[in-house]
Design goal:
Blueprint lengths: L8 H6 L1 H10 L10 H17 L6 E6 L3 H12 L3 E5 L3 H19 L6 E4 L10 H6 L3 E7 L5 H11 L3 E10 L10 H11 L18 H10 L2 E6 L3 H5 L4 H5 L1 H10 L11 E9 L1
Parallel strand pairs: 1-2, 1-4, 2-3, 4-5
Antiparallel strand pairs: 5-7, 6-7
Helix pairs in contact: 2-3, 3-4, 4-5, 7-9
């Protein structure tokens, strides 16, 4: 089903981002939840970080939330003889991504297991989460966070990740323009609407379920641990306004903004990445 004919091996390897975007666009919608421009930014980061730390058996890419981004991280991990670890509790999503990696990539990259591992558990778990990866002696040169979009979860992931980071590591976040603190009421209300239940009125929720925007909080948290935290310019910020993704899914996007799972404010910060160095 996913053994697409998208060119010869030589053509694919010489135009790998075009190939990866083409495969991404053929994913079902529930796995293709990031704009093309964000996906290309992840490709760029994985390519540059992979090249910098190639052939290091203890250096990994970390991802929370399986999906389109997994294609980019897995491809470049394989290209540079690294490994990607992905945390997600959805076996259904992970199974389809594994099928795509196997059918679309294996001819070019070899066995999926040689460059990608799914951890079907919570990323913040002491025993099976990111912390446990560090206890196995691994270091992380690139992470991408796209699991539960609350600051309680994102901060937990970043705190677990920080000991694994090395000078020059990059930390990237999806939906970094959200503000949910403990509970993503946008997602809660999406499911309540599907169930025919009344929506939670946020002005009745105490304390305020929204706090500071996540990208600022992430930068501040990283600055507590590193003297240098550089927000990176990326392909997404330069191209999101023309991204066909927002046109394809405009009806859905408008509805998601109404419910709060997406926000149109500060859309340039939907994706953000930070390079860290000089640990305190």
């Amino acid at each position: 089903m996913y053994d697409f004919m998208l060119g010869t091996k030589e053509e694919i390897l010489s135009h790998e981002k075009d190939f990866l975007v083409a495969v991404k666009r053929m994913l079902p919608r529930w796995l293709n939840s990031i704009p093309d421009s964000e996906f290309i930014s992840i490709c760029d980061l994985a390519d540059s970080q992979g090249k910098k730390y190639s052939n290091n058996e203890k250096m990994v890419f970390v991802e929370t939330g399986v999906g389109a981004s997994t294609l980019a991280l897995a491809w470049y991990a394989a290209k540079y003889n690294l490994h990607t670890y992905t945390w997600d509790t959805s076996s259904a999503k992970a199974a389809v991504i594994r099928q795509v990696l196997s059918e679309a990539f294996s001819e070019h990259l070899g066995s999926v297991n040689s460059y990608w591992t799914l951890v079907p558990w919570m990323s913040t778990s002491e025993h099976l989460g990111i912390t446990a990866l560090g206890k196995q002696g691994f270091k992380c040169c690139l992470s991408f966070h796209d699991s539960e979009h609350t600051w309680a979860n994102v901060s937990g992931e970043l705190q677990a990740l920080t000991p694994l980071l090395v000078d020059g590591s990059v930390v990237a976040l999806d939906d970094a323009n959200l503000k949910w603190t403990e509970t993503n009421f946008g997602l809660v209300n999406t499911h309540r609407k599907k169930l025919g239940w009344p929506l939670i009125q946020l002005d009745h929720v105490k304390p305020d379920p929204k706090g500071e925007i996540h990208w600022r909080l992430a930068k501040e948290l990283l600055e507590q641990n590193f003297e240098s935290v550089e927000m990176l310019e990326d392909y997404y910020k330069s191209n999101f306004k023309e991204d066909p993704y927002f046109g394809w899914y405009s009806t859905e996007f408008i509805e998601k903004v109404k419910l709060g799972t997406e926000v149109s404010d500060e859309l340039k910060h939907r994706f953000d990445s930070f390079k860290v160095s000089k640990r305190r």
